[in-house]
Amino acid sequence: MQIKHGINLKKQEMWILIIFFIGGIPGVSLDNKVSLTLIPLLGTASIIWLLKKEWLAYDFNLLKSGALYVWVGRGITYCILVQAFFTIIFGLESTSAEKTSFHYVIMPVYIVTGAILEEIVFRKILLKLSSYPPFWLNALISSSIYAAYHFTLSRFISFLAVGLILCVIYKKSGSIAAPIITHIVINILGLIAMTLRN
């Protein structure tokens, strides 16, 4: 679907954005065990179904590429450094999802589904939403929405920087798999850090 001012959005991408952002409304999806469990799983299943042609056409042999994992390694390193830097400066405030999900067995599922959903939305769809601005402006817009989506003011800059890193990883690797894998690893490391902190 072509919308005014150079914004490109396919019908399936529009549905993905609707499913994702409705499922992430604070007070709806993050405040209880049932919604925290079901919404990410249903959202992931819906998005996989909407993208089934792309999933079926995807060459999973690309996951064996050494170049992909070079970008994943760089992404993990840069994300850890950025998060450590901003944690030292601003302290660490947990997001509402982290506060709620930490106490539930669903956390490992949430770590994976959250990363997949967020990378599809913020990198695959929103990063290329507009055909007019240059990459860095699109990356800044996508990453700003990503940071705002996490609903924590004190970590906004940290999430913005991580979002920009994931945008670069996506562009340089040429595959959505690289930022998804990076994001999952960062989430796992975050869970380990939260566990040790508590």
From TrEMBL:
InterPro entries, alphabetized: Rce1/LyrA-like_dom
EC number: 3.4.-.-
UniProt GO molecular function: hydrolase activity
Domain of life: Bacteria
Signal peptide residue numbers: none
Enzyme class: hydrolase
Keywords, alphabetical: Hydrolase, Membrane, Transmembrane, Transmembrane helix
The CAAX prenyl protease 2/Lysostaphin resistance protein A-like domain, residue ranges: 104-188
Residue stretches spanning the membrane: 12-28, 71-90, 102-122, 153-170, 177-196
Coiled coil start-end: none
The keyword Membrane is assigned to this record: yes
PANTHER family assigned: CAAX AMINO TERMINAL PROTEASE (PTHR43592), CAAX AMINO TERMINAL PROTEASE FAMILY PROTEIN (PTHR43592:SF15)
Protein known as: CPBP family intramembrane glutamic endopeptidase
Organism lineage: Bacteria, Bacillati, Bacillota, Bacilli, Bacillales
